[in-house]
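Field log, afternoon session.

UNIT: design team B
ACTIVITY: writing a sequence onto a fixed backbone
BACKBONE:
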């Protein structure tokens, strides 16, 4: 595994991300929603650095990926909190094709949010298939498959405190190991 962003890099990036969000909202109350499960680690670090009063909730999204490529998106909003008339910030780990955030922004508007913005740790330099772009981005990264700091392959590696590129041989080895 090749480290792309160290623990120190991530700390600095999240600190700057929080500052950008603070500058934008000031003291306005914010409803901050974690897109599970990938944003888990970022979310915990981010909300503790934001200064405004917050309501915090979660929504589950999974892309039924085959291997490492994007698949059909499934959203479970059973644990959502009320966002009607609220300023909402959606937090996700990575903006890849953009389908996840695009869909969830639409859902928040459907639920009656008065504004919806998005924050991500990573934006991949790749072809995004939607028109929207995240409002707040900590890092732009090359089009590689990455794990750690919340991001997974087959639900593994989320606990790594750094971000690493998972090479194709390691992807194959992880899949094989989980099958046995
Ligand atoms: P999108 O809908 O294609 O933008 O993909 C967003 C979701 O795909 C993220 O929330 C991640 O769960 C997952 N994803 C995309 N790229 C990667 C990656 O490089 N490593 C791990 N998960 C990824
Ligand atoms: Mg995810």
């Amino acid at each position: 595994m090749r480290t792309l962003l160290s623990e120190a890099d991530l700390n600095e990036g999240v600190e700057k991300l929080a500052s950008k969000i603070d500058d934008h909202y000031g003291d306005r109350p914010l409803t901050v929603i974690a897109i599970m499960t990938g944003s888990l680690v970022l979310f915990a670090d981010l909300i503790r650095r934001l200064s405004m009063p917050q309501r915090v909730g979660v929504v589950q999204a999974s892309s039924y990926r085959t291997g490492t490529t994007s698949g059909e998106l499934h959203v479970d909003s059973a644990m959502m909190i009320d966002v009607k008339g609220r300023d909402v910030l959606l937090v996700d780990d990575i903006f890849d094709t953009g389908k996840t955030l695009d869909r969830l922004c639409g859902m928040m508007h459907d639920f009656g949010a008065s504004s919806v913005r998005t924050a991500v740790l990573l934006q991949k330099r790749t072809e995004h298939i939607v028109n929207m772009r995240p409002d707040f981005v900590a890092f732009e990264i090359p089009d590689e498959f990455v794990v750690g700091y919340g991001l997974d392959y087959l639900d593994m590696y989320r606990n790594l405190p750094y971000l690493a590129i998972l090479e194709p041989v390691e992807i194959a080895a992880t899949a094989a190991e989980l099958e046995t």
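LOG NOTE: The first strand starts at residue 2 and ends at 5.
NEXT ACTIVITY: expression trials, pending approval
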